[in-house]
From TrEMBL:
PROSITE patterns (alphabetical): AA_TRNA_LIGASE_I
Keywords for this protein: Aminoacyl-tRNA synthetase, ATP-binding, Cytoplasm, Ligase, Nucleotide-binding, Protein biosynthesis
Protein name: Glutamine--tRNA ligase
Organism of origin: Flavobacterium sediminilitoris
Gene that this polypeptide is encoded by: glnS
Motif 'HIGH' region: where in chain: 34-44
Length: 560
């Protein structure tokens, strides 16, 4: 890692300074500590890239530690999804850890705090404790149970552990101060009673540690050197350090908590609670709905791990929360898919094109390049015949001067094929065009080297042979929310901004080479955008999700 501070973010500067102050480089260890109560979202992706990126840069281990201290909201499904997402993003963790691994040690330490007179069992109701805690401008008052004897506290705490009491009857609190300026230091709760089945420890425990008690102590047990949290945990740092002071051994590494700002993404929400609402109220089809800001949803939509990592690196790490325009993510997606996605033919709003002078019953196979960005060019064969599908918007019966696609009396090139000229149309009883008739220049075949093939025309359009076309379901996605910051106004329910047109399902036609495509295969549908194969797809029915368009049209629409 370079020590040129101008090239380092403030997190890296902290690490570099600690190394200068004597911390051995082999003592560096980082962690990513998700709570398994939902799927990871784009905000978590930034934290993953930060912590695992530091691990790569400093050749230091990174733990994946699950903060599984609330069994009422946690499930094995979420653990599995989190591991899958981290691996998909391209990262490997050193140790897979769980706060529940440390339940016995945390309990033993809590007993020691009671014995030292630094923790007590409080039997007030949660409402009474809230009043007794005071306000940011007024001091709190001592609990009537604050001066219980050590013996009584030990007895009650053990009975809490054994499950003798109902939820809410007792809690264990740290005895710090009821006059602290930091409200979190006013005798914070360390344990609460919960008669809930834990996904790893079963019914072994009837009490569960609070996050603030488990967090720093878990870091310490794992010998994490730097514990990076989002900015809302800044007030918790004082408590993090107080708890560490009670158990810290100077022969070991003392973890250091530092904070960075969240990076919120426009036109979406990154609160697991709100994402859960969207799922439970069926506004989306699940946690991996391609409109969701979850990593699983973005993966299903066709966004690549490389694009997400590039996005995280582009927005960087900051000390101030801000809203990142989703168009920046779209840019990173286009930039990556442009390099890796094969170009294919697909028609999503078809109208039939008949080449009247093409021989009846004839077909030929034309050579088409897969991706012009490839270092070593590869090609595939495309079937061509007398009848084709083209995009309805690629034809105008009476075109204006700036329309460079097909119209009557004008010429365009069919991509990888021939130059054609519009001759006439066939309409139904309502006046809708059902067929476009054209003629082709037999000598104008792309790549043939003839004079006619080198002739310049103003437009090129894509097509699919009707005899060979494969029908496909295409899911066209838009922003899930119409407002750039849907949860920015606390007086307005964020769901009021849900975009009713965030999904359009259409039937299109694709070239036959896509028949063998597999889930998450990426393609550029030429002139239409980037698409990927959905998990609902099968050999009987292809299903594609639109990942992103070829250019940013949303910003232009929004500016109007």
């Amino acid at each position: 890692m370079s020590t040129e501070e101008k090239s380092l973010n403030f997190i890296e500067q902290i690490i570099e300074q600690d190394l200068k102050n004597g911390l051995s480089k082999d003592k560096l260890r980082f962690r990513f500590p998700p709570e398994p109560n939902g799927y990871l979202h784009i905000g978590h992706a930034s934290a993953i890239c930060l912590n695992f990126g530091l691990g790569i840069d400093y050749n230091a281990p990174v733990n994946l530690r699950f903060d599984d201290t609330n069994p009422s909201k946690e499930e094995q499904e979420f653990v599995d999804a989190i591991k899958r997402d981290v691996e998909w993003l391209g990262y490997n963790w050193d140790n897979e850890c769980y706060a529940s691994d440390y339940f016995q040690q945390l309990y033993d330490w809590a007993v020691e705090l009671i014995k030292k007179g630094k923790a007590y069992v409080d039997s007030q109701s949660s409402e009474d404790m809230a009043v007794q805690k005071g306000t940011p401008t007024t001091p709190g008052t001592d609990s009537p149970y604050r001066n219980r004897s050590i013996e009584e506290n030990l007895d009650l705490f053990e009975r809490m552990k054994k499950g003798e009491f109902e939820k809410g009857t007792h809690v264990l609190r740290a005895k710090i101060s009821m006059n602290a300026n930091n409200m979190l230091m006013r005798d914070p709760i360390m344990y609460r009673i919960m008669h809930a089945h834990h996904h790893r420890t079963g019914n072994d425990w009837c009490i569960y540690p609070m996050y603030d008690w488990a967090h720093g102590e878990s870091d310490y047990l794992e010998q994490v050197s730097h514990s990076f949290c989002t900015l809302e945990f800044l007030p918790h740092r004082e408590l993090y350090d107080w708890f560490l002071n009670q158990i810290y051994d100077e022969t070991k590494v003392r973890p250091k908590q530092r904070e960075f700002a969240r990076r919120n993404l426009s036109h979406t929400v990154v609160s697991k609670r709100k994402l859960l609402q969207l799922v439970e109220e069926n506004h989306v089809t699940g946690w991996d709905d391609p409109r969701m800001s979850t990593i699983s949803g973005m993966r299903r939509r066709g966004i690549t791990a490389t694009a997400i990592r590039n996005f995280a690196n582009t927005i960087g790490i900051a000390k101030r929360t801000n809203l990142i325009d989703v168009s920046l993510l779209d840019f990173c997606v286009r930039e990556d898919l442009n390099k890796v996605a094969p170009r294919v033919m697909a028609v999503l709003n078809p109208v039939k094109l008949v080449i009247t002078n093409y021989p009846e019953g004839q077909e030929e196979w034309l050579e088409a390049e897969n991706n012009p960005e490839e270092e070593v060019m590869t090609y595939r064969q495309l079937p061509f015949s007398k009848e084709l599908y083209i995009e309805r918007e690629d034809f105008q019966e009476e075109a204006h001067k700036k329309f460079f696609r097909l119209s009557l009396g004008t010429e365009v090139r069919l991509k990888n094929a021939y130059i054609i000229k519009g001759e006439s149309v066939v309409k139904d009883a309502e006046g809708n065009i059902t067929e476009i008739h054209c003629t082709y220049d037999v000598d104008s075949k792309s790549g043939s080297g003839t004079e006619a093939s080198k002739r310049k025309v103003k437009g090129t359009i894509h097509w699919v042979s009707t005899a060979h076309a494969v029908e496909a379901e295409v899911r066209v996605y838009d922003r899930l929310f119409t407002h750039e910051n849907p949860d920015g106004n606390k007086d307005v329910d964020f769901k009021e901004y849900i975009n009713p047109n965030s999904l359009e399902v259409i039937t299109g036609y694709v070239e036959p080479s896509l028949q063998s495509s597999k889930e998450l295969d990426h393609f550029q549908f030429q002139r239409l955008g980037y698409f990927c194969v959905d998990r609902d797809s099968s050999s009987e029915k292809l299903v594609f999700n639109k990942t992103v368009g070829l250019r940013d049209t949303w910003t232009k629409v929004e500016s109007k």
